[in-house]
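Extended Data, panel c. Modelled sequence:
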Amino acid sequence: MTEALRPHHLSLGNKIARVLWQMVWFSLYRPTPRLFHAWRCLLLRIFGAKLGKAVHPYPTTRVWAPWNLEMGDHSCLSEQVDCYCVDKIRIGAHATVSQYSFLCTASHDYTDPTMPLVTAPITIGERAWITADVFIAPGVSIGEGAVVLARSSVFKDVEPWMVVAGNPARVVKARVLKGAK
């Protein structure tokens, strides 16, 4: 079930940590060659990310708050992915988030005149594939093995092993693997 948005306040400590992270991202993360995944993982871990084995965060991936990022073994954040992880983002093992996708865990409550920040976590299941230029809204869970097709916008949970597309994303078909019975 899509998680409800909840009020969120950014502490001074959070703001200072993000400034430090941005300096590290700009000077030590971003300029690295594409193959230096282990170095980028080290930097993310220093800032609190929980990363499995053989994780592939690419140099142009933007991670807003590494301490809110969890990635399973052999998962990937491709080129130009924006991880706006004001809240938790969990990416399962062998899952891929392809280029230009935006994982957004925060918004504002436009029904309140002060428009406070509201957040909800995003979960991407094992073996899921978020293809190119996809928007994932706060509170959404993408099920194991699901595929979200290019340029889709996902505002509701996606069931395991389903293929979805469109804005808003809708089920296209079940994902059936070749050789599967």
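The chain has a mean pLDDT of 96. This feature is highlighted in the accompanying rendering.
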